[in-house]
Design goal:
Number of helices: 16
Helix content: 40-55%
Number of domains: 1
Shape: globular
Order of helices and strands: HHEEHHHHHEEHEEHHEEHHHHHH
Strand content: 5-15%
CATH class: Mainly Alpha
Distance between the termini: 117 Å
Largest sheet: 2 strands, antiparallel
Radius of gyration: 32 Å
Structural class: mainly alpha
CATH topology: Glycosyltransferase
Number of strands: 8
CATH architecture: Alpha/alpha barrel
Length: 417
């Protein structure tokens, strides 16, 4: 029999005590690691949940949001490509550098500019000069104009008031019709369309007094508040075609989903008589959409075919309605309408022929070779525009600014470099 008393008196071996001590420390270390990991995991979970709820809020996010039917809607603005598609004129310049038309444009561009300054004036000036050096009493380049349009402090200096504001969805420019000074956008999304045609990336900053946003926030606000029945669609269509494609669909803040097919159908069915500038902006927007779809498909085949047919019909109408002198009136799309200057406005309004002809010639220059009318259509329009511009060589009133810019841009595109 083993003597229990002896066993109790014998010392415990050191290796046994060491093993017990190591086991105890291992247990404590494992417990500490587990508790630390669990606390860290809880912290990560809380942060992730907070970020998820933040991005699910009214500001939107790249993760999307729930639509009215419970389906998670993709944030189209967040998915838009950073660098927009470029849609440039496709007509081949045929006017020589020393032609009368080229000389006329050179002279016109040397003139003094009106001091009037509004958002539409800036958008048109960017159309004329792009981001390059320009002749203007207050700006030395197009980049300075962009800064005036995208920096709140600068905009208040130039315009005397803020021209854009922060919304629950992003950034929005003020509507000129709701301002006493009429310095805001005269057409919905004209700034968005202008920036898109300039090729400005969506990362371009838009600065308020308190924060810095970017063009993606401007696009997001337009997407979030989109409606096929909104007051004007043409500038929105240009901005969406250039920035959103090849995405085919987007969803507004009310959970309503739309596609480029829906947009194209509305443009096709629109009444030209009720549209701005004799419907020139409508056919221009349709051509932008057609061109973008040709490189990055965003339309279904049936709608693409319908858009092509509609453009061909408009081109036929434009050829048949051109006067012998080369101009068009605002009623170019109305069969049987007298082609004289029956649409000429009052002495205090711009010449409707200059307005229509400059806009329509710019549209025709966007058409691909297979849709372009005969070269003589371009030549006669350019010749008439130069005659009209020479009459306005010394003075450009604020009311003539828009048709004047479109006319100069249209003729200049036809001059060979």
């Amino acid at each position: 029999m083993v003597n229990d008393e002896r066993l109790n008196r014998e010392p415990v071996p050191d290796r046994f005590l060491g093993a017990c001590l190591i086991s105890r420390w291992a247990f404590l270390a494992e417990s500490l690691v587990w508790r630390t990991w669990r606390a860290g995991a809880l912290l990560v979970t809380v942060i992730s949940l907070g970020l998820f709820l933040y991005y699910r809020s009214s500001w939107g996010s790249s993760f999307g949001r729930s639509s009215s039917d419970g389906v998670l809607a993709v944030d189209a603005a967040a998915m838009a490509k950073m660098v927009p598609a470029r849609v440039r004129p496709m007509v081949r310049p045929f006017l020589a550098k020393d032609s009368p038309e080229a000389v006329c444009i050179s002279r016109v561009l040397q003139q003094s500019w009106t001091e009037s300054l509004t958002v539409p004036h800036c958008c048109h000036f960017l159309r004329l000069n792009g981001l390059d050096v320009c002749r203007h009493p207050r700006f030395s380049s197009g980049r300075e104009i962009v800064n005036a349009l995208t920096n709140q402090k600068s905009s208040e200096t130039y315009f005397g008031e803020p021209i854009f504001f922060q919304t629950r969805s992003g950034i929005r420019y003020r509507d000129a019709t709701n301002q006493k000074s009429f310095k805001g956008e005269n057409h919905r999304d004209i700034c968005l369309a202008t920036f898109a045609e300039l090729g400005l990336p969506l990362s371009t900053p838009i600065k308020t007094v308190d924060a810095t946003f970017n063009l993606r926030d401007l696009l997001r606000d337009s997407v979030e508040n989109f409606d096929l029945k909104q007051r004007e669609l043409t500038w929105t269509a240009v901005g969406f075609a250039i920035y959103l494609s090849p995405q085919r669909a987007w969803t507004n803040r009310y959970g309503e989903s739309f596609t480029f097919d829906d947009l194209a159908k509305v443009l096709i069915q629109a009444n030209l008589e009720e549209a701005s500038c004799g419907g020139a902006h409508l056919v221009y927007a349709m051509t932008i959409l057609w061109r973008v779809d040709a490189s990055d498909a965003c339309l279904s085949e049936p709608v693409r075919d319908a858009l092509t047919r509609c453009l061909r019909e408009r081109i036929t109408a434009i050829v048949e309605s051109q006067s012998k002198a080369g101009y068009w009136t605002l009623a170019w799309h109305t069969p049987g309408m007298e082609k004289s200057d029956a649409q000429r406005s009052s002495p205090h309004a711009p010449d409707s022929r200059l307005l229509a002809t400059g806009h329509l010639l710019e549209w025709l220059e966007l058409l691909p070779a297979e849709l372009q009318p005969p070269q003589d259509v371009y030549r006669r329009a350019a010749r008439w525009l130069c005659g009209a511009l020479q009459e306005r060589l010394l003075v450009v009133s604020a009311v003539d600014f828009c048709p004047w810019i479109h006319a100069v841009c249209a003729v200049r595109t036809l001059v060979a470099e």
